[in-house]
Amino acid sequence: MTGKQRRQFWSAVHTVLILVAIFIMLVPIVWIFLAAFKTHVDVYQLKLFFTPTLENFDIVFDDPYRLGEKLFNSTFVALVTVIIAIPIATLAAYSFSRFSMRGETMMLVIILATQFVPAVVIILPFFVMFRDIGLLDTRTGLILVNLAIVMPFAIWMIKGFIDGIPIDTEEAAMVDGSSRLQVIRNIVLPMAAPGLLTSAIFCFIIAWNEFLFALILTNKEAVTLPIGLALFKGEEGDLWNLLSAAGIIIMAPMFVLALMIRRYFVQGMTMGAVR
Question: Which of residues 267 and 20 earns the better pLDDT score?
Fold first, then answer.
């Protein structure tokens, strides 16, 4: 084979592998989408042509499942977590990026090390603490837990974006009379906006999909969507048609969010990777 033929061969192999990977990822999603519109009988039959129904979506929002309440809980907890985490993480990341502090490296390592602690190890202390202060089965408790989960991740991620901003632009602004807060507001935040948005997306996804803490720390009032999926069981076993309908509801915000901000997401990831 000539050099050109080898390149064409490996290009074809790469294309085939990519298509296979896409197929493997899309098959479960397509199956869930189709099953969401099937009856309980049709969901066990492997057929592409069937009479679709919207009854599953009506059922999951009605008693005893009441998925609407769980949707509100998940949305509220995830949004408030992001709204609180991103400003605090941005200020912390800016401090680590621009100021020299004693023990800075150790503090960053400790922040990163918290991400390696298994959630099952710290769930009991959280449970006991929240029980004693009355935060069990509350959205406030879930927000605090999610903040503890996403803050270290957000600080490290945003710090990488701020490190990529030339410090000369900040020094020039301060020479012209701008204060540190004005520099952050007028220069750093606009330049780091794609990175901040990327961090916010990841924090939202983490809070939206969080399962273990929500399972242990909630019972009735603050149950979220991932926990609500466990309710779809009957005498005949798992109700896959209802599970699929609920799964579509859980995945839909992520797809819509990804379509709306995909340009900023790619820009932010590139900004954090290339300096």
Answer: 20
